[in-house]
Amino acid sequence: NVVFILSIGPFVAAILGWLILGERVARFTWLAMLLAVLGVALMVASGMEEGGLLGIGIALLAPISFAIMIVAIRKRTDRDMTPMLPLAGLISMAVGFAFSDTLVISTSDLAYALFLGVAQIGISFILITLGSRLVPSAQVPLLALSETVLAPIWVWMAFNEQPAKFALLGGLVVLVAVVAEAIAGIRREANRVKSS
To answer: How many CA atoms lie within 13 A of 134 on its CB side?
Structure first.
């Protein structure tokens, strides 16, 4: 359910980008977003179950806050927002601390947490922050959906956990949507540069 809810991120970013920045979303981008949501639906269809309203509401906060971050970065392209990432990490740490029963952690789990915090979260958000200045609001979360596709592939490679057929099919649909939109975005930018 959460993965499916996260896939609405491009729509939220597109609407906020249009309302706040006046960014128009290309028809092909809308099509790619719909295709990506269909792919995510295929990926999670076998594991979908009814969730509580509170859980769904909390899950909705993730794509909404991600879209707000992207639009805020795009609104202030004159400022480097990368220094704000450590502040976001401190806020996340404080929230995690508030919900934690204990601070006891094994050495191996601490090593994993530090690696993931720096490599997966830290570096990826630096790249997203830098890229958001250059890419329209709706495209950033659409491109980020490639993470949804790659996650089961990494698990398959690392732990030999066979993804379900629908997960592979849905992943292929999302990947086609993301790659097609990336190529279309490059072509639109090339045409814009030629015309100016």
So the answer is: 9
Q: How far is CA 3 from CA 31, 144, 175, 183, in A?
A: 20, 12, 15, 25
Half-sphere exposure of 35 (CA within 13 A, CB side): 21
- CB within 8 Å of 97: residues ≥ 6 apart: 103
Residue 52 belongs to what H/E stretch? none
Q: Which two tokens stand for residue 136?
A: 């329209």
CA R_g for the chain = 18
Nearest residue to 87 via CA among 134, 132, 122 = 122
Instruction: Return the exposure string of 71-85: e unless at least 16 CB atoms fall within 10 Å of the residue's CB, then b.
Output: bebbeeeeeeeeeee
SS (H, E, C) 113-174: HHHHHHHHHHHHHHHHHHHHCCCCCCHHHHHHCHHHHHHHHHHHHHHCCCCCHHHHHHHHHH
Residue-wise pLDDT for 34-79, tens only, equals 888 888 788 777 665 555 677 778 888 888 988 888 888 888 877 8
